[in-house]
């Protein structure tokens, strides 16, 4: 079912985030109202698989990550189903003048780069999940470096959160947002009006890792299962085949976080991007390897 077509929508659960103050709820409602209005004006949306979103429990959302407006795309879908989205975002974002105030006001979850600080994020995420909320974490940790915007090598943050909480992991893939705001672009491309497609998948089967310790081998194996599920879904959505080998930034001498091409450069991170990596301290939603919910 698409959001622009008539039909019976899946049952929405009551919007009552546990532990959230009335002030925070009002702030988020105002923020979401503005974002939803803008998205409805700028793009046409097509949503599939809404019935696969858990209705009576907390869960983890793992989306693909190809442009800076991805959190708005995913947050829009969840909020419209009366599901409060909590994004794990790098702590540096919370210190910026405008965006930081928005993230703090919306009660989002900061992820510190240090191992000790990352543990606080796990506790905060567990509280959200226990209260029936949705924790959104980008398993790639940053915008994909793949020249064609396919999911790249994943980081272990999402796997660690799933193993530590036992919550369902729901893959969500989307395509089209990069036409509205290309990766590292300077502005929006509104005309002609674009269409963004979002697909919710079945919970990823991670049962083979039940009872395992959170060691490197386990977390990397879980991460590969998560990335494989996301890639297969995106292949179906795009109608194309992803590369046989997932893009690895380290193998291309690219930074593990931050921008790796000049903002607005031609090709949006094409094949020549790896030759002149930009290691600027730009932050994006997600976690870093050193702050990977250890």
Textual characterization of the structure:
The chain is of the alpha/beta class. The chain has one domain (22-275): 3-Layer(aba) Sandwich (Glycerol-3-phosphate (1)-acyltransferase). It contains 7 helices and 7 strands. The chain has a 7-stranded mixed sheet, sandwiched between helices. Strand 3 (85-90), helix 3 (99-105) and strand 4 form a beta-alpha-beta unit.
CATH homologous superfamily assignment: Glycerol-3-phosphate (1)-acyltransferase
According to CATH, what is the topology?
A: Glycerol-3-phosphate (1)-acyltransferase
Alpha-carbon distance between the termini?
A: 39 Å
- Beta percentage is 5-15%
Low-confidence stretches: 3-7, 262-294
Secondary structure topology:
Blueprint: H1 22-42, E1 43-48, E2 59-63, H2 70-80, E3 85-90, H3 99-105, E4 109-111, H4 115-130, E5 134-136, H5 157-165, E6 168-175, H6 177-180, E7 194-200, H7 216-238
Parallel strand pairs: 1-7, 2-5, 2-6, 3-4, 3-5
Antiparallel strand pairs: 6-7
Question: How would you concisely characterize the structure shown here?
Answer:
This protein has 294 residues and is an alpha/beta fold.
Which features does this protein show?
disordered C terminus; 7-stranded mixed beta sheet; Glycerol-3-phosphate (1)-acyltransferase; 294 residues; 31% helix; alpha/beta; disordered N terminus
